[in-house]
Task: structure prediction
Amino acid sequence: MPPALIFDLDGTLVDSLPGIAAALNAALAEQDLAPHGTDAVRGFVGSGSYMLCRRAIPDREPDDLARRVEHGFKRHYADHWRDGTTLFPGIDVLIERLSSTGRRLAVLSNKPDAFTREMVDHLFPRQPFSLVRGQIDGSPRKPDPGAVGPLLDHWKTDPGNCRLIGDSEVDLETAEAAGIPFIGVAWGYRPADILGPSVVDSVTVLEALLTPD
Result:
C-alpha cells in the first residue's frame, strides 16, 4: 500500500499569512502594542496561537499579556480568516488526484483545532482527508512525536509507511522525532535550506514525488 500522507496546513496547503497578520495586529492594537509587517509575522507562525502572540510582544512583557493578545487574536481570526486565506496554486488539483487514487491523507497543524477543521472544510469541500487534527489543549503538538500518534492509530500503520509534508523546521523535527520520512516545500514560510535534504520547489514536483510510476 502506498505511504499515507500527512500534510501541514499553514504554509504547505494554504497561504494563511495575510489573515493571521491582520487578526494578530488587530489584537495587538487592542493592547496598545505596535503592529508587525507580514514578513515579521511569517517568523512567528508554526508553534500555535499562544507562541504566535508571545513572539509578537516584547520579551519583557508578562505571559498574561500574551494570553490577552491570544484571546483577541482568536476572536478576530474567527471573524475574518476567510479574508486572508487561499490555497497555494495547484494544491486543490494535487489533493484531488491523490484522493481519487485512494491515498490515505491527513492534515496535522499547530493551529487551534477548531480553526484547522473549519478551514479544511471550507477550502476542501469534498473532504479528501481521513483525519484533520489541530492543536488540542492537553494533547501533544508538533514537534512532539506524540502529535502524530492519533494518525498512526487511525490508519493502523507504522511511521515508516507515512510521509510528512511541511514547510518549517517544526515539521522536520516532528518527522525526525517520529521516524517519518519528511518532504519539505519551498513555497512556505521558512527558508528552504533549513528543511533538510528532501525539498521540492513546486506542486508539480511534489506530485511527481508522491505518485511515482
